[in-house]
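Please predict the structure of the following assembly.
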Amino acid sequence: MYNLLVGGAAGQGVDTAVNTLEALLKAAGCGVFTVRDLMSRIRGGHNFSLVRFGEETPRSHSERLDGIIALNEETIALHRDKLKPEGFILCDESVKTDDSRAIPLKLQGIAKLLGSGRAAGSVAVGAALRLFSTPIDGARRVFEKSLKPGLVEMNVKALEAGYRAVEPRFERVGGSHAGEMILTGNKALALGALAAGLQFYAAYPMSPSTSILEYLASVSLKMGIAVEQAEDEIAAVNMAIGASFTGARAMTGTSGGGFSLKVEALGLSGMAEVPLVLVDVQRPGPVTGLPTRTEQSDLKFMISASQGEFPRMVIALRHHEDAYRQTIRAFNLAEKYQIPVILLSDQYLADGTATMPVPDPAKAEIYAPEDVPAEGGYARYRFTESGISPRKFPGTRDGFVSADSDEHDEYGKIIEDSETRIRMMNKRMGKLELLKRELEEPQLLGDERPEVLLIGWGSLYGPLEEAVRLLNAEGKARYGALVFGDVWPLPDRLLREKAAGARALIHVEQNYTGQLAQLIREQTGIRTDAGILKYDGRQLSGEEIVRRLREEGY
Amino acid sequence: MSDSRFETFETAWCPGCGNFNILDSLKNALDELALDPHDVLMVGGIGQAAKLPQYISANSFSGLHGRAVPPAAAAKIVNPALTVIINSGDGDSYGEGGNHFIHNIRRNVDIAHFIHDNQVYGLTKGQASPTADKGSVTPVQVEGSLNIPFNPVLMAIAAGAGFVARGFSGRPEHLKELMKQAIRFKGYALVDILQPCVSFNKVNTFAWYSQRVYELDKEYDRGDRAAAMLKSMEFGDRIPIGVLYQEEQPTFHEQHEVLKNGQILAGRKNDPELVRELMLEMV
């Protein structure tokens, strides 16, 4: 597995170079995983991406670099300390550096000769692929997909010139990923929503959730669905609820700040029993925080948001395939139990790209309730044994369909009497007990009988997977990690079982207060012994987890 | 009317409330339009006016305070076969929901928005609403409201609404006709309904309105936007009621590439083959 950093100022073409690199690595069969470290600005600043690739698709980034493509001097200064001794720095010959690992090339010179300095990134990508002994056969097709027709030829030539400028240095890696997709976490989520039958998406732009809105809008005509940019997040969520009430599968997405505005409507979905899928792509808070960076600090907020008590489900997304699968599941559970289901993602997963096998959307299971005849007139909130009342939609001839945010009777009319209130509360909250039977236990990584058990959730899946692999390879103790996807209601069977056999429990989270650890203690009484926490907006790597675990004495 | 298809139910309104006439006008308008109640969706926010959807036999959505318009618009977007009508108050529509009011005029989904405008908060017992007169004394505005009263009809015309009317609960026949026109109008239609609050507004009473309102006559040109804006500013000794402005323009559905051909999203599924094609674009 190799790890390459591409860095430069915003506007210098870092993203274009990375996209080309990813596509050509994948065409050569590699599994690819890229994280994007972006500054919240359009020009200037320092942006970089870490492209990791190998026989298998990596699930996290690494701090140890095999190579750097430096589109400016700053990139070298900022990242050379992480470069392995045998690593390389590809840069323009004009860049001044005393680093012996530098391979100065006429990146600008070649590009300008071909027509534009903007193609310098392609020269560097060509050279990097040659150093990794990776063929560039698919280059033309890649550029045809990503560039305007007039720019294709120039970039192909630039890439080839870079390729010729160096000699192979690293052994070729590759697998069978050429036929896979390469996509961001947000796109994986959006595809899951489409496979689940999404008909209506409303949102207000907010990083890092905006690309869900943009992607769905870009395919809305093909799919025949409605994607609406609402006037604010409150409108977005209320529109999604209105669409769902009327019979369309609906979703709304945002980040924490936007979710704060949606909180009252979250309760409406619970009270009025209108199925709803809500996406929170987390970024560091509070308030505006670090808009383009990552954090896992909304967990307790998602579990408790909105006044009163109502059933809800919160699912943390762990990686790209998980994002696709869990989004489909979220739609089904929302519809089956007529509750809000929150998908908790974060910037690391949302903006990061990975190769992923093409799933079969025809095999996506779509929950379809039986059409129950309305005996004695239709009542939206009919008391039933399960607490789940058959849904019908406005327009049905079986009766009138009503939704109400006030406490209501079976027909959705306002009530205030104690008896109906208690029955309705019991009906709604009872659905949570049924839902608990469908919970998925966290995924156990590493040793089956861990002495040291790491506990995490969501997108720390990849870093934790790498951490336990590194730790177990050392052979000093047996390490395992439980990575939660379903976080509310909290599944606890596997946790209790593994915690009982472990001598130390360590929570690993991207937040300040150890929110999952708190939740576990509240729900199970199980206390963790130590925590590895990070809240600087940058994701923990597997190596960093190992290092910090050592510092803690485990 | 013996052949009415719409029933009304017992309400929680104060005796003498203007809401009763508004409910009657609505019921009669729906009957005269020969609508099937099963195809009608009544939407309200929170407030005394917003309880109206509970009191008539049709589908109903009683959501959050200030948030009646977004779910109503979305319901129409996913099922254009429904007749979607919002009945809500001035606090709900112009205060808490002011942003949705403005932007759903711009969105121009084919819905009717009936706002019971009594210049006061009824459900919370008497505070100033956005349309309260300057100087209105209430339990909160103890020295009198300092704020400029919101002019909803002027705002609606300025924002680009295609149908802007003002009615009066004390002229139920006239109001019924306005409602019928608003429901039939293709696009967002606003009827601001002046209504006395017998419990909390002792100034703008039934008599106060009755002395001031006058119906726009046939001479009035409802297609002249500039004149309509001037007419909308008339609110004092004389208050015009009727359709202040009407100009059809393309609706949300008519302009929407997916919806303009009659696509109904409610109950629809996606073709997995199309999803597969999207996936293959990422290979």
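The CA atoms of residues 275 and 339 of chain A lie 5 Å apart. The radius of gyration of chain A is 25 Å.
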